[in-house]
Amino acid sequence: MKDHYCVVSFHSTYHALRFEDVFKNTDINVRLMPIPRQISSSCGTAAQFPCEKKEDMLLICKQNNIEIDSVHTIEKESNTSFFKFFNLIKK
What we know:
Pfam families: Se_S_carrier. This protein is an alpha+beta fold. It is about 25% helix and about 35% strand.
């Protein structure tokens, strides 16, 4: 299991589904997932993506008018099953 990954949250399910559709045609591997409640309770859907692709992901979202809420790094703490949430950007 990876020790960290990034998650993008959305203002609406429409933007989450549009995000998934647009990223099918890129080299960035994304996966829709239920949003962790520690991040948001607005839209129930988030997308996981590789943290090293954050700048590319943000550019593609801007070019395709995909509104995002925020981007977070989720890091597994050693010896536990808890996660730390680090907000990378807030729109």
